[in-house]
Amino acid sequence: MSALQPFILPILATAGAIYLGKKLYEVTHSYHTVFDTYQSVSTRAELQVPTSFPNYLKTRSGLILHTRRYLVPADQCKGIVFFCHGFTEHSGRYEGLAYDFNKLGYSVCMIDHQGHGASQGDRSYVSSFQSFIEHVIEWMNNEHYNIINSLAGWGIPGFSLNHHQQELIFKNVIISAHSMGGLISTKLAIHLKQYPECLPWLYSSSISPSSSPTSSATSPQPTPTPTSPRFILSAPALALDKSLTDLPLLLKISNILSYLFPKLIVQKMPDVELSTDLVITQIAKRDPLINGPHVFARFGSEFINTIQYCHDNAKIIDFPFLIMQSNQDNIIDCEGGKEFIKKISTPNENKKYITCRGYHEILFDVDRDMLIECIKDFLQQHQVNE
After folding, report:
1. Whose CA, among 27, 193, 366, 369, lies 20 to 30 Å from 298?
2. pTM, whole model, 2 decimals?
3. Per DSSP, which regions of 158-234 are E strands?
């Protein structure tokens, strides 16, 4: 045994180097494979992604993000829904939900987050989770600018709503989201309580249609009003499923790895059924705009830290909240949503937690119609009509 001791350390060092080399190869190879496949499709028609009013937003950081609008006629519009999708997916999957909101009288705006769908960025990767929040704020300000211009008829006589009608629509702002989008929206709610000036039109609807969304000279200072955004979240990622938290050592020390090897693959998402309707899972697997299942060290670290941040700061939130989750969710632990909604300061009559059947994608599962009715009731309860 003593004769082998001089060789033990070199053997362990070599094994460690081989392991890290293999992981780094997986990062670069898997990323380029996904990204090259994404870039090889020359047109959106070939991607076969349903769109309605597709648009692109160039962020201050220079990224181009894909957005969508599903608008109802101005004279029938009750409010605006801003929707954020989940991890690895894209907004096009929720076109049916957009039409459900349209039927209820709400125009819908959607975004493909950085590194997702048709937006730029490394696939399923951000160096900081706060980037998602900043992009959503830029997007919402940009959409407000565009929509208020369309409501004003772009200056064309006979095609505009009066100022009161425009204000009424923006008193009914809904922030809806699924899974990771729910985590983004939750952190956004905290950010809005800390920095309400980031969305000034939520507190003052007097921004002129001709005002630029980035113009500080013409933007009014926010003044508190009785209205506030309402949040509707399905399966929000406020706690990971226990099967995902029992991860290899690499993910448990991801805070260290995120600085040393930010794009090191520390875990792959489990290959589970997204819905009890097996067709939903098969469609998702064949969708060219859905990213691979890799979780990178930096992203994993940011994700876990953001969950903890939202629970630690939940008390400052007093917005109306509706959270919908399944007890059979195989990706998100529903206990996270239950605990979170208890922590927020929203009065009990303005917050609701709904349980349903199905797996993670409850809006594509057996209780979908029931959930849409719950959304309808929540909207009616918090509708501002004057």
Report:
1. 193
2. 0.81
3. 173-178, 230-234
